[in-house]
Sequence to fold (980 residues):
Amino acid sequence: MARYGMALDYKNCINCKACEVACKEENGVELGAEKHRIWVGANDVKGEWPLLDIASAAFLPSQCQHCEDAPCQEVCPTNATYYDENHVVRVDSDKCILCSYCMNACPYDARYVDDRTMTVDKCTFCSDTRLARGETTTACQATCPTKVRTFGDLDDPNSEISELLRTREHFSLKAHLGTNPKLFYLT
Amino acid sequence: MPKEISRRRFLQGSVALTVIGSSAMGKTNFIYFKKEKSSIPESITTKTSTKKAEEIPFLCGICVNKCAGFARVEDGVVTKLNPNPYFPKSRNMLCARGNAGIQTTYDPDRLKYPLVRIGERGDGKYKRVSWEEAYNAILHGTDKFKGLLQILEEEKDNRSTIAYCNGEGLSKEGFEVLMGEKIGTVNYVDEVSICLETTLGGYFATIGTYGEADLSNADYLIIAGANRAEAIITPDTMDLFKRSKGRGLKTIVLDPRFTNTAAKADRWYAVNPGTDLAFVLALTYVALSEELYDKAFIKKYGVGFEAYKNHIISHKYTPEWAENITNIPAKEIIKTAREFMSAQSPIYYQGRRSVFSKNDFQLRRAMAIFQGLSGNLNKKGGIIYGEPLELPEEEINSPIYNQAQGRFDKHNIAILSQRAGSWMVFRNMVVEKKSPYPVRAMFMRKHNPIAGVPNSAKTIQFLKQMDLNVMIDILPSDSMMYADVVLPEASYLERTSPVASYGLLEPAIVQRKAAIEPLYETKTPEQIYKELAEVLSKPLFEISKKYDNELQEEVKKRGEKNVYKEDGYILSDAWEKDVAERNRERVVKAFGEDAWKILEEKGVYYSNIEKYHKQVNANEYQYYPENKKKYSVETDNIKLVFNFRHLADIGVDSMPTWKDEYLFSVPEGKFRLITGRHAQFTQSATTNNMMLRDLIHTNYLWINRRIADKKGIKFGDMLEVKSKVGKVTIKAYPTEKIAPNQVFMIHGFGGLSQDMTMAYGNGANDATLLEDIHEPVYGAAVMHETNVEIRKV
Fold:
């Protein structure tokens, strides 16, 4: 029993996409450019050559925010989307009817359709692969060249993530929507 | 303020990264055919199971960098590659390509069996043969091509009629042993002369090392023409971007285009291509005229300082002078020089990769000198000399071939590398019939010169001209299509490779172990070397006996059996023991039995690893305690050669000097073509990788958005790009990240081989366009001096 979350030192991100590939290989994610549980947002740099606004070209690594109040879970008519014992937002593929309400409800666009299983798929925090084997990191965290991510139990005051959130400033994405994401971006 | 970026925005916003549902993908069958007892997965991505699995230490081979990992193997299938936390060089990481390495091993387009050509060169018609038949075809030829026996007979045992090339890798030395030492040709070309030769040469000539940049502790960085966010080098990439953006490492980026590295900079200067030398000379001018340099350091290690000082000042290499040349304002140059020299630990990053312009050797000399002026060498936060771990050398019994002739690719080159010469000069002299003897056979391994060496048309002509082409590789590359005999090699997850030593600051020994047995009928490189050597040994010895008078004398004196054995003519004797056994012997000899046990288990060894190696947090490890890192070492290598007098004797400037011919200019209506790397693939080698294709499917031509608007060019429009030596078609990517008179494309696309179904015809190959221009010191290929025309088609 834990309450898993993730802190992202997003300024480290170089948009190399190691996380995206590690996630696909670990979790057997379907191939295809649109089929990804994890991604890096990149803005086009603003300005005209050679006067470009460097700060406008930031990279923002992202994935399912595992909201405490997840709109996707709320709208799911079949309870396919549920919270597991570790507060991870999961999808039960047997119950999913591909109504796609969850995809529309998710403010982070974190979901996509797996055409093999005909399920709406998303990040699981490697719950059924790495965590199930007793490992303590997600695939995206472990592989990252610049060590963007720290995954851990928010309820454990001694966990690294709790320590990071106590000592570093951080923000959440679309905090105004009241979804209470469990992904925290460190500043 | 947080940025809100949705998946759709991501897809739309980063055009170069996502193109969905290409026709080639649609056509490809994603299900592998299951063989009996095979260990080939049924689907492309395999979800890892919850069972316990084997974890085999491997060394990544998807690029040249060498990161360590553990391969998770379930029922004979590699299901996941994880980073190895014991290796100080790669520090517990694998990049996107490293993760996607599985897809190279399980690539359905792999070379699976030995092949012999039955069609014409380039048409891709081959017959599957046994290994024995393939080796014999190399020796005897077929009705389609000549064999080695006939060629050597006709050339009267001039072994140098055979040439060979090899790309970087752990089994490269073995190929050099086979071709250079045992078969006995001098004509070897490799990736160095199309890569970092001038950088290595310039740094060694100036400060006695290429060194390692200690980016974990530096506080000021100028990084020019090196794109560490997209051309990943460990540990540099990891160290740099954890501390950029106002977190301890002030970062100044010079690059003609706005790269992902520039996106992480404090300042980015859009330098004119090929003019970095003027920038460094002007920095030096500021440091010297304002006396900002480390006088004690120069007094101790400097050679010819006064001469250099006079040289810089008298030539008036002022910031104002450099502004016009480089496109960097004088006040910015002054500010950068002052900041650099007043920083505690400044680094002018050495860079790597290609030779950009003809002045590249002098540029690297000037950079090394400027670094030296700060005195920040051989110390924490500086350029590290360090102490690599030494592995025992292996002895090779090399026969002497008196009929073998010498190298000839010296035309217009000051210093000819004795090991591997200049690819471009060598190729051109052969094609232009300027070689003093005919070169008639080409043995290629893990190298795709059609995509890598500028002016592809000439490389194709070169390969067509050969009587015999042999290729050892994993995938059917562009160059493979011109091979007569094809020997399929095991991928890096299927082979144990020779142990290697990496690192200067935190040195370690590392071993790649086979995670699985070679698939199909592929063999490890060392097995191929040995078996080919066995087949060639006796027949080739017979030819030498016929034409080599000294050998005949020896045979008379000592008897044929003895000479054959004792003088190294048994070509396979270099591979009597297999790789694993040789690794064990070498490691035990140097470091003892315990070291071997640790290496076998962890894939990495250095002394006191078990004591020193500690986890610091979930992501980071300590490899050496702070006081055991080799920040400063006692060495005679430290020097700072301002004036290298000997260079003048061979026609090279003894001090970095600007020449008007280095000026950047592009004729009206044309564009300077620049090329570069991308973090999601490695040159032409990974364009067939299904996983990486999800991330970047093709290359685009970057063109300035305002110019594109004027020409009516929109994103995705097809453009014809033409240079003096070739033309390609490629899709347009209008962007402000590039200058109005320049265009850029990622290197490596535009595959010509139809057998690489995912890569074939995708995007454009820059080598088709690049003119064969070489720099004067080593004959290394110059990549950024070609102008092109563009037309919408």
